[in-house]
């Protein structure tokens, strides 16, 4: 699955806005994830997952920074996320199904904050982009 | 039988009362066809689906989106009996329409995103939880009579 030029442009444009609230969006996405899909909490037994927790915010930031890297290197997501890909494959081993769930929650958070920017075309580009990111992060699993 | 807490019922009903079924339905179906283009396979008779603009403006898409979301309203009205509510529709989707149930899950998630974009801050994580549960129960009920 490769992104067209138009899709890459859509991803980069919205990212400029998202980046200004990246931390909050990251935390909100995780909150939505843990709330709608409680089974995802099993990967964070060591975390305080209550709303507003500093660990939640910190981890949300980490996730969004990585996405930001992928945006910056949208022509070579595999290269940009190579280390993270190994981390997820050999250390974290988060089941692949969960990347879809988090991607969905990120889309919800972005849609809620930027409804007029989140047109169907932008929605499609972001869904595809996050799907690419998820693929890269799981491609070394086996 | 699905168990709904009083809070979940309240979150679902109160959001639903503010939903413009025609607009949301049209938007949800259009987004499904745009974001997951392979879903267009079920709508060969709908005419021009060649671009996002064409899909959004397509009157058949709008009408069908409204039909689908109106039907969804039946679930909201019958939270305690969703299985029975969708028994006939489940048979229809299997025997006549031949729709892979995965598509019900896709549409459910698209609906959630449409609700998020319309209700913004009001579509809290708790609200999303109740609605994810609802779309999941509906998808399950629609798949239940498949054979």
Question: How is this structure best described in words?
Answer:
Chain A: GO terms for molecular function: haptoglobin binding; heme binding; iron ion binding; organic acid binding; oxygen binding; oxygen carrier activity; peroxidase activity. Chain A: Heterotetramer of two alpha-D chains and two beta chains. Chain A: Belongs to the globin family. Chain A: Keywords: Heme, Iron, Metal-binding, Oxygen transport, Transport. The complex is a heterodimer of chains A (142) and B (147). In chain A, 70% of the residues lie in helices and 0% in strands. Chain A contains seven helices and no strands. The longest helix of chain A is centred in the middle third of the chain and has 19 residues, at 54-72. The two termini of chain A are 19 Å apart. By secondary structure, chain B is mostly helical. Chain B has a single domain (4-141), classed as Globins (Globin-like, Orthogonal Bundle). Chain B contains eight helices and no strands. Chain B has helices at residues 6-16, 21-35, 52-57, 59-77, 82-85, 87-95, 102-119, 125-143. In chain B, α1 (6-16) packs across α8 (125-143), α2 (21-35) packs across α7 (102-119) and α7 (102-119) runs antiparallel to α8. Chain B is globular, with a radius of gyration of 15 Å. In chain B, 33% of the residues are buried. The A-B interface holds A 28, 31-32, 35-37, 104, 107-109, 111-113, 115, 118, 120-121, 123-124, 127 and B 27, 30-31, 34-35, 52, 55-56, 109, 112-114, 116-121, 123, 125-126, 128-129, 132.
């Amino acid at each position: 699955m490769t992104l067209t030029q138009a899709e890459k442009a859509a991803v980069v444009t919205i990212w400029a806005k998202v980046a200004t609230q990246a931390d909050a969006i990251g935390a909100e996405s995780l909150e939505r994830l843990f709330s709608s899909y409680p089974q995802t909490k099993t990967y964070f037994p060591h975390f305080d997952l209550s709303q507003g927790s500093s660990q939640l915010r910190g981890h949300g930031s980490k996730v969004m920074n990585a996405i930001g890297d992928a945006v910056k290197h949208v022509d070579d997501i595999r290269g940009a996320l190579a280390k993270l890909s190994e981390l997820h494959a050999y250390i974290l081993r988060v089941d692949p199904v969960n990347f879809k769930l988090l991607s969905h929650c990120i889309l919800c958070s972005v849609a809620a904050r930027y409804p007029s920017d989140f047109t169907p075309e932008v929605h499609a580009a972001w869904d595809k982009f996050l799907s690419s990111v998820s693929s890269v992060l799981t491609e070394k699993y086996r | 039988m699905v168990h709904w807490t009083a809070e979940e019922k309240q979150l679902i009903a109160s959001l639903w009362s503010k939903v413009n079924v025609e607009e949301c339905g049209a938007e949800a179906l259009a987004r499904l066809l745009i974001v997951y283009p392979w879903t267009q396979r079920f709508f060969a008779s709908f005419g021009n689906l060649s671009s996002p603009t064409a899909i959004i403006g397509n009157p058949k898409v709008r009408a069908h989106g409204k039909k689908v979301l109106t039907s969804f309203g039946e679930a909201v009205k019958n939270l305690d009996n969703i299985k029975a509510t969708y028994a006939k529709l489940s048979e229809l989707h299997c025997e006549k329409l031949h729709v892979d149930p995965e598509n019900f899950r896709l549409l459910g998630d698209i609906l959630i995103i449409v609700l998020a974009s319309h209700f913004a801050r009001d579509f809290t994580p708790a609200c999303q939880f109740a609605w994810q549960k609802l779309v999941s129960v509906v998808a399950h009920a629609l798949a239940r009579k498949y054979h």
